[in-house]
Design brief:
Radius of gyration of chain B: 21 Å
CATH architecture of the largest domain in chain B: 3-Layer(aba) Sandwich
Number of domains of chain B: 2
CATH topology of the largest domain in chain B: Rossmann fold
Largest interface: A-B, 28 and 36 residues
Helix content of chain B: 25-40%
Oligomer: heterodimer
Distance between the termini of chain A: 30 Å
Shape of chain A: globular
Number of strands of chain B: 13
Strand order of the largest sheet of chain B: 5-6-7-3-8-9
CATH class of the largest domain in chain B: Alpha Beta
Largest sheet of chain B: 6 strands, mixed
Number of helices of chain A: 11
Order of helices and strands of chain B: EEEHEHEHHHEHEHEEHEHEEHEH
Order of helices and strands of chain A: HHHHHHHHHHH
Radius of gyration of chain A: 22 Å
CATH superfamily of the largest domain in chain B: P-loop containing nucleotide triphosphate hydrolases
Structural class of chain B: alpha/beta
Amino acid sequence: MKSLVALIKREFIEHKGAFLYAPAIILAVLSVVMLSGVSFGRFSAVQQVGIISGAKGFEFGFLALSGLWFAYLLFALFFYFADAFSADSRNNSMLFWKSMPVSDFKMLASKMTAGLTLFPALIFGAALVSGVVVFVGTLIMVYTVPGFHLSDPVSYLATGANIAGFSLGYLVLALLWYAPFFGWVGLLSTLFRRWSIPLAFLVPGLVGLAENLLLRDAGPDGGYVLSYLRRRADFEIDGDDLRLALFSDAPFDIATVLGRFVASIDWTQMVGGLVVAALFVYVASEVRRRAVAG
Amino acid sequence: MNDLAQSTTAPIVSARGLRKRFGRNEILHGLDFDIPAGRIYGLVGHNGAGKTTTLNALLGLTSYEGTVRVLGEDPYQKRAQLMENVAFISDVASLPRFLRVRELFALLTNIHPSFDPQKARGFLEGTDVKMEARIKNLSKGMIAQLHLAVVMAINARLLVLDEPTLGLDITYRKRFYRRLLEDYMTEERTLLITTHQVDEIEFMLSDIMFIREGELILHMQMETVSTKFAQVIVKPDQLAAATALGPIYSETRFGQTAMVFDGVERDRLAELGEVSTPTLSDLFVALMQRGAK
């Protein structure tokens, strides 16, 4: 366990640029832009969105920024897995790590664990700080924008906790849902290094194309492969649930939105996907085990 | 031409019928050897002779045919466990460049149960390697010093060095080997080293193995080398007599003919000219040419 933690720390040191420094810079820029925009009246929630409640504005802004951070995380993780699984052979340190009493599976499992726990936690932290920035912006608007009224302070806390809880819940579920895709990219990275980036899409695309050519008019529209992958890529929250929660006068209700979302998840697919992800990591570790000298 | 050292204890390394193929090309042709504890072995051969492939097999870095046991374990199946007692430097540039020296020691403390960070710090005292330095900013020589400090701070029973001083200047090379002998070697530890600069390690070797085209052509203790092989600077009038004794190698340098003999008594050779023990590099050249395909 001690060595696994150390290896995860190693991943952090190697990739802190994408998951610590870049988010910190984005946060700094975002804070300056948002707070100056609000302070100088270049943005008005009342005119542009029609929001008149401070708490609702905070809720809307925090959730929107959490969504953007989630998109950033998915993007960064895709490149992380495309890089990390082959970084040791590319930067010539493979033999050093192989001289350590750590199996190849443990080495890659540490990368997978870092990608699914530590790095998302850092980005979630960035989302929380964004929430604070939105909160400050909301307070400024309360005092500068006519018609934008202050809610009681407790409601801000409750709203912040609701949005943070919802973001965290969705983040955990989404990472588990997309784990096989990250495992797939990692496996390709072990085999083809940076070519894993286009191959991650090209290989399933070609398989789907071949299926369509060979089994024309059979199966669902677009073929079994592509329609399955489309279904597997879709992990969105029902738009009506979200609109209802956001645009009603009542505070965002995490229990209802997240509860309905959890109930809609195909858990067989979820568990099966995790098994496939573990299998991809195992195969990648066997490839890595043979990687030094053929 | 094998002189497998006899030992009452189990050998640290044992290989029987070690073969390695890459596709249809066989690189190692069934090597048999034992390496007992407490010895310093040199494995010498041309580029492509199979030195690194042999080491990779011993370190569990590649699959193979035959039987290999390192500290009693199958290295390919048990590499991770084995590395608790085996340290190796395969390439001086293999340290992770993104780390600082301090971070490297902190990680190793938690990853390697036999790593002692205090020892590693001690080995770096008096060098230009600073704890806050990033490895990517260190010179080749400093990286070699750092890597040596790391492996010497691991309480390993077997240390394997594959061309550890490649690309270093003579000062660093000499310092590297001196440090290794003075600060690392004990009777319980075994060292296996490959290098092209064979003259630089000759003084420290207890045993030598020559490998040519995937076959061991020499495996013996250094003491045996000096009794078995002899080099003679042959007197001009003794050339015919010397040739009749069947030298394994003959070369004329600056008008003098030097011949290397295998298993000929020194008393007989003394009549032919000035007798000495060939250096490892002379012996290497001699044996590589004998029977070369």
